[in-house]
């Protein structure tokens, strides 16, 4: 619910005690077309001295996994035991956080370290397919 200028002002005011900046769309649940996950990359470029994360108000797990793939160092989400319960954020809450945490951990492993290498599992295939 803030412009970039408002975010800049908040960062300037809070920076002595600020550790994390979270990208967020504050609707419950957030519309898929309004998540703007690439803002995570923008924040990482603009504020390299801070940890950048994502505050999820989308009703599924996809947004948080995408945020991890974009380098989020923190994921905030709402948890409920019944999404049909009364309350403004129930529809945007996650019922089974274990599934999300497992997905985040798997995504972290899938991302790797960015260094291209030939894995031991590829060697037999490489040897087979490179025969002339």
Structural notes for this entry:
The protein is α/β, with parallel strands linked by helices and 132 residues long. The chain has a single domain (4-129), classed as Aldolase class I (TIM Barrel, Alpha-Beta Barrel), CATH 3.20.20.70. The protein is built from 5 helices and 3 strands; from the N terminus they run αβαβαβαα. It has helices spanning 4-14, 39-46, 62-69, 97-111, 123-129, and strands at 20-24, 51-56, 75-77. It has a 3-stranded parallel sheet with strand order 1-2-3. Helix 3 links the parallel strand 2 (51-56) and strand 3. The longest helix is centred in the last third of the chain and has 15 residues, at 97-111.
Q: Which overall shape is indicated by the principal axes computed on the Cα atoms? A: extended
Order of helices and strands: HEHEHEHH
**What is the end-to-end distance?**
61 Å
**What's the total count of β strands?**
3
Strand content is: 5-15%
Low-confidence stretches: none
Broad structural category: alpha/beta
- Order of adjacent strands in the largest pleated sheet: 1-2-3
In CATH's first tier, which class applies? Alpha Beta
Q: How large is the radius of gyration?
A: 19 Å
State the share of residues found in helices, binned by percent: 25-40%
- Major sheet characteristics: 3 strands, parallel
CATH architecture field: Alpha-Beta Barrel
Q: Can you say what the CATH homologous superfamily is?
A: Aldolase class I
> From the structure provided, what is the oligomeric state, counting identical versus distinct chains?
single chain
CATH fold title: TIM Barrel
């Amino acid at each position: 619910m803030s412009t970039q200028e408002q975010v800049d002002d908040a960062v300037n005011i809070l920076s002595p005690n600020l550790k994390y900046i979270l990208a967020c769309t504050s609707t419950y649940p957030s519309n898929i077309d309004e998540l703007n996950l690439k803002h995570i990359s923008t924040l990482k470029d603009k504020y390299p001295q801070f940890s950048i994360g994502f505050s999820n108000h989308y009703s599924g797990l996809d947004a948080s996994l995408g945020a991890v793939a974009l380098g989020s160092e923190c994921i905030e989400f709402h948890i409920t035991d019944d999404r049909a319960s009364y309350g403004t954020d129930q529809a945007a809450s996650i019922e089974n956080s274990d599934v999300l945490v497992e997905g985040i951990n798997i995504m972290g492993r899938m991302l790797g370290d960015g260094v291209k290498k030939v894995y031991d599992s590829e060697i037999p295939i490489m040897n087979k397919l490179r025969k002339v």
